[in-house]
Amino acid sequence: MLVYDIQNLCKSYSGQEKLANNNISLQIRQGEIFGLLGGNGAGKSTLVKQMVNLLSPTSGMIRLWERPLNTTPLHVPLNVGYMPQESAALNNLTFGEALYFTAHLRGLSRQAAQQERNRLLTLWQIEPLRDQYSSQLSGGQRRLLRLAVAMAGQPPILILDEPTNDLDPQRRRLVWDVLREENRVRGTTIIFITHDAIEAEKVIQRVGIMRNGKLVANGRPSDLKQVVDQQLRLELFFTPGQEPTVPAHLPKQIVQAGHWLLLLNWDEVTAVLNQLDLSQIDDFRLYSATLEDLYLHYANQS
């Protein structure tokens, strides 16, 4: 079942000749994890703001569960948890108040909203921050607050703008673990914007890549990789100055001293690995094209 159906969407801003979104058509299915990648100014946030009804399209149509967004004002806030990059509206609320009021506004009773507040504080391991105001929090703590607020009341759809920015590695792992579990247990549809293709690859089921306001790629990463690049990557790690012997015909990139990246075809794998002298290397890694490779391919196209 389609959650979002976006058709021929265009968005222009006053005083700008270039379209911020240029003829975008995209469908998001119920229960999927969809990642939206693109560089600064690609049009990702503009697209998402239209999906949560904060901006009106210049032309085109967005439907949420087959209903145009502009027909029912409460259709989006009751069904979509949106995490923006910034949210000054939360500055005058404590962490606990923001969670409680959001859950209550999404239809939970007072008692249920209190329970939801406590659940989220525990889930995100932030109980000590309950009575602190948003304006007193660090950048990473404010990001966790916005993420928890988006989830308050357990909306069936989450749209998250850069959910792991400003977070340390431990918190980033917690974010992806929680989102995977929400999707697995509740069937929550998750749409997120990120610049970090390496992290995104761990969780997404389908990816859209934007460049200059256009959606230039859309599909499962495995399918897109096959179209873009079917070569394998072989990373070799060795003691600097003691270079290993490798077939001369293989394209080789010197990442840094003691670290090479080689590209090889699938039918070369066995022969190349058999030629490696393991006494000359400390470690090696063999893998297919990554989501980052895919992203860079489309981002760098003219």
UniProtKB/TrEMBL annotation:
SUPFAM superfamilies (UniProt xref): P-loop containing nucleoside triphosphate hydrolases (SSF52540)
Domain ABC transporter: 4-237
UniProtKB keywords: ATP-binding, Nucleotide-binding, Transport
GO MF annotations in UniProt: ATP binding; ATP hydrolysis activity
Gene3D superfamilies (UniProt xref): P-loop containing nucleotide triphosphate hydrolases
Pfam families: ABC_tran (PF00005)
Protein name: Efflux ABC transporter, ATP-binding protein
Species: hydrothermal vent metagenome
